[in-house]
Amino acid sequence: MADLYRIFGSELSPYSVKVRAYARYKKIPHTWIPRDQRSNDEFGKYAKLPLIPLVVTPDDQAMQDSTPIIERLDTVFPEPSIHPGDPSLAFLSALIEEYGDEWGNKPMFHYRWFYEPDQQSTGERLARGMAPDLPDDQVAGLQQTIIERMVPRLSFVGSSAATKGQIEGSFLRLLAIVEAHLAHRSYLFGARPAFGDFGLAAQLWECSTDPTAGALMRGSAPRVVAWGERMLDPTSDGEFEPWDALAPTLMPLLREEVGGVFFPWSAANAEALASGQKEFTVAIEGAPFSQQTQKYHAKSLAALRARYAAVSDRSTIDPILEAAGCLRWLQ
Ligand SMILES: N[C@@H](CCC(=O)N[C@@H](CS)C(=O)NCC(=O)O)C(=O)O
Predict the structure, then answer these.
(1) Who lines ligand 1 at CB under 6 A?
(2) How far apart are CA 11 and CA 22, in angstroms?
(3) Domain ranges of the chain
């Protein structure tokens, strides 16, 4: 145990699966500890927040929050690199990672808790995962308790009957774009996984395990399903591609999803937080999208803006971001 990193997580947690995929790719000696009743005491000893993933280093340091976890581990395990050598591509990859974590989580959470079959399926899987020793005849009770706790949380991600169309529209568009992009490559930036793959694939893989979103994906986006599975334990099969090769099918993701949906929403959330509003409404695709203001998204947007500010030569990245409708949100 002494030389191992410990990853406390759940198969149903996209952020946990993301960090585990990273640890596997980097061949970081680690052990995966399901966050359940058996690991409760150990988890409680290290966790500052009741959130997974939690990573404990061999020298007993606890880390939470998947993006900073990966960034910290990357200083210790730089190879194989998850960052394209071209600084413009490295920034685009980080941008997609942020999009996956913060917006990609919306369809994941929405489909999982909005529809009855998904509520039941996820509730049962969570109940069995949390309490592996629970007799079968008591699972249904815990399942219902979990459903009752999670369904009201739809409001945290802005999912409601009013916003269902925008969230599902974004999901279907995302699937179509990524499906086309993966027609000739294994990963978003070429033949090896990048930071962006870890963020986005984890959310979509979770979707693929759920009844409603999974059926949609198997029906219209088999390459996305295969990519999600590949990203559980990714390998490098070659190099990152240059922007010219990626642009025809990656630009639509940046323009339609990152610039078209994610940035307007994230910037509105940050403004609402700054002005002390508990809820905010922003026009997404010409219709109002309302949700509770969230501190975390504002913090991660600030980190993304700092990352952009740290790109020393922006002569290549700025025209790409401008064409994608992303630049004004970063300046
Ligand atoms: N920004 C955090 C998000 C972590 C998070 O939201 N984890 C969820 C599971 S995916 C959690 O632990 N939720 C606790 C709960 O639902 O009680 C990260 O990237 O690690």
Answers:
(1) 13-15, 50-53, 65-67, 101, 296
(2) 15
(3) 5-76, 87-108+159-330
Residue 324: predicted pLDDT: 98
Q: Say if residue 148 is exposed, middle or buried (CB neighbours under 10 Å; 0-12, 13-18, 19+).
A: exposed
CATH superfamily of 5-76: Glutaredoxin (3.40.30.10)
Query: How far away, in angstroms, is 265 Cα from ligand 1 center?
Result: 20
Q: How far apart are the CA of 52 and the centre of ligand 1, in A? A: 5
Which mutation among 51, 154, 301 tests ligand 1's pocket best, with the greatest number of atoms within 8 A of CB? 51
What secondary structure, in 3-state letters, does 121-183 show? HHHHHHHHHHCCCCCHHHHHHHHHHHHHHHHHHHHHHCCCCCCHHHHHHHHHHHHHHHHHHHH
Low-confidence ranges of the chain (pLDDT < 70): 1-2
Supply the pLDDT for residue 1. 57
Query: Mind listing the pLDDT tens digit for each residue in 228-263?
Result: 999 999 999 999 999 999 999 999 999 999 999 999
